[in-house]
Amino acid sequence: MAVARARRIERRELRDLRRWVERTDTFVHLSVLALVPLLVAVVTALSNAVDQLSFLLFPPLAAGSYTLFADPEGKYSSPTRFVVGLTAGALCGWSALTASGAVGLTDGVGPLSSGAFEAALAVFATGVVTWAVDVEEPSAYSTALLALLVPADQERAFVLSVFAASSIVAAVFYVWRERFYEQRAQILYESVEGDDRVLVPMRGQNPDSTAMLAARLAGAHDAGKVVLLDLVADADAAALERDLLDDQRERRRVATDGGDTADEATGDADTTADEATGDADTTVDAVADDGGEDTRERAVAETARRLEARASDIETQVGVPCQVVVAVVGGSPAATVRKAAVETNCDLIAAAYEERNGGLSPFVRGLFRGRTDVIVHRSRTGRTRWRRVLVPVRGASDVAHGMLDFAVRLTGKTGLVSVATCVTGDRARRRGEEMLADLVAAFDGNFETRVSTESIEDYLAETAGDFDLVVIGASRERTAASRLVSPPTFERIRDVDADVAVVDRN
Question: Which of 89, 134, 314, 429 is the most exposed place for a label (fewest CB within 10 A)?
């Protein structure tokens, strides 16, 4: 017992650590801590090995490197700007020193001192040159002033060393940004790596719409699949339904692979689906008429026909494999669904919304207590396509990453994902804009970002009607006291005129 508990604690700590690393600001800071000292060490080693490399280049190089890595999407994040800016500064300092000597205005009093005129001319020239060629770089002013301290016989070597060292840093930064920072969604975010094998318990409000949502989520990945789950009360009904499903599946396979009609020969998906549905109807009639089967058997046969027809529709319309399984409820329906997700190798449960007494039903709450990711879908009109999706977020968390990943999968290349956050005042607006920019930068898709000073309820009441779907988090990280004082957002927006999907990362 103690060992199992220790393992659970270890897994939870590792999961929390990974989710902390997933945050963009954490990833950037860790990269700064790892790469900037390493780059300075490399340049220092080169400086010790090559006499022409001056130690005076280290301060601007370290400062400029930090600026690059700390703000990879910012104004000064261009590798070209970094190299040209630092080199231009060194050239301007050298030129200012030469010009001052030519006109006799050199007034330095020691080997490591420079005159006021030289310093002013170096800074002025740096500002003019970097502005003119649009390579303004803060560290350029450092290299300009440090060039004034270089001995006369080492000025050329100093400029070359600035160019060489800054080029090394720029090359490493470019590789890091293109191969790691820009691809961090695929490298770090667990939601992008999985959630492509989806289990759909066929119960609740409009499960057919939820099944289609699951299919579109799974269809975004090559390895995606959908499993429709029917929950029954006794083993006899389950055995009968499994037999009927096996028979219908075999008929559908024959209709797809071995048909003789021209439409089947050309792979006509609509004809195949119609034939499969017709075979299912035939099976129902056989069960219903064979010796006067009772009402329960008729209901089982109708359920099997409906589920197999839905699976056929999913495969035809979305192109993702879909199967139907039957499970006997042994106590808690939620526990049965969680067990079925493990047995069918599914990493996401998509359930239709259910409520009781104004809140989530015990079934949905039971799904949230499992170890499999869950998305709960509340359908308004039975929609099966979602082109415009709104994703309100509070921060750049792992849940937000999962919500954006789901939204991008649903909208595809032609839809629009609107990512919004609500802040407490105008002072927090800039931080909200930066957070949203970092959040969407890791994903490929059509995005717009919105920052509002309204409450989340008021904002959604005004804007949700413009979208097909609102994707929100389950707020599972909040304490029980916090949830008691203020219920989760999805429980406070029952009247929004759009579908709602509640995401819980387990």
Answer: 134
